[in-house]
């Protein structure tokens, strides 16, 4: 039996979406315990570590979605960049995912914070790039195809770019957890750190609802291809 490339890519794309959506829900629920002052610092820290361990799978799923979608888009004929561009695409995202995992393993150290900030700088370039490319394509100027029943791809990439902005803010919040827990380790009664922690997670929870709606929208465009 010969298995073609497209069904395998679809399967991996579904798995990446599942890990993204499920992971974000797991981090959302765990955050309630991270800010619960009734718990001991050790227990709160354990919940924070659990959140990080869940989040790394979500982050991996997010970064896998674009090369998978880009590859399938070429097979479907909605984006013209095949051949060497697909290799460049996979190599770039393979390196980016490796960077995310390195930042995860060193998350408690200054090295981990440095790697996380480098990861964020990549997003400062990548997010505007795909937003501009997808918006331009929706207007008919390329680089993606925008003929009849082809605009769904550009719309999907555009919404994905917007979600990466929200995801970047959520990454800031999780990085702030590490910094604030260092402060609380030195002074467990630091009320300003506690208030900052509670406020940042309130913001993150509010953003999470838009995040989930956006993830559902991306999945809808990919599955239904409505326009």
Description:
The structure is a single chain. The chain has 227 residues and is an all-alpha fold. It has one domain. Helices cover 82% and strands 0% of the residues. Helix 5 packs antiparallel against helix 6. The mean pLDDT is 90.
List strands and helices in order, with pairings.
Elements: H1 5-34, H2 41-76, H3 84-105, H4 110-138, H5 151-186, H6 191-224
Helix pairs in contact: 1-2, 1-6, 2-3, 2-5, 3-4, 4-5, 5-6
The shape is: elongated
Gyration radius (Cα, Å) is 19 Å
Order of helices and strands: HHHHHH
Low-pLDDT stretches are none
Q: Whole-Å distance between the termini?
A: 34 Å
Mean pLDDT: 90
Task: Write a short abstract of this structure.
It is built from six helices and no strands. By secondary structure, the protein is mostly helical. It has one domain (5-224).
Q: Which features would summarize this protein structure in a list?
A:
227 residues; mainly alpha
């Amino acid at each position: 039996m010969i298995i073609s490339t497209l069904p395998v890519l679809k399967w991996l794309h579904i798995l990446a979406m599942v890990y993204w959506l499920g992971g974000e829900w797991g981090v959302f629920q765990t955050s309630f315990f991270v800010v619960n002052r009734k718990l001991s610092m050790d227990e709160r820290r354990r919940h924070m570590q659990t959140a990080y361990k869940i989040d790394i799978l979500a982050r991996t799923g997010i970064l896998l979605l674009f090369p998978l979608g880009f590859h399938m888009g070429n097979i479907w004929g909605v984006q013209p960049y095949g051949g060497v561009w697909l290799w460049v695409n996979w190599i770039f995202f393979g390196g980016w995912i490796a960077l995310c995992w390195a930042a995860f393993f060193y998350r408690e150290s200054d090295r981990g914070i440095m790697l996380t900030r480098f990861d964020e700088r990549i997003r400062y370039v990548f997010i505007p790039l795909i937003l501009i490319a997808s918006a331009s394509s929706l207007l008919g100027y390329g680089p993606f195809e925008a003929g009849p029943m082809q605009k769904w791809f550009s719309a999907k990439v555009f919404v994905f770019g917007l979600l990466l902005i929200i995801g970047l803010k959520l990454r800031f919040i999780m990085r702030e957890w590490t910094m604030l827990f260092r402060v609380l380790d030195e002074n467990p009664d630091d009320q300003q750190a506690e208030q900052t922690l509670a406020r940042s997670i309130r913001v993150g929870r509010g953003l999470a609802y838009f995040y989930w709606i956006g993830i559902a929208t991306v999945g809808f465009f990919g599955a239904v291809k409505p326009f």
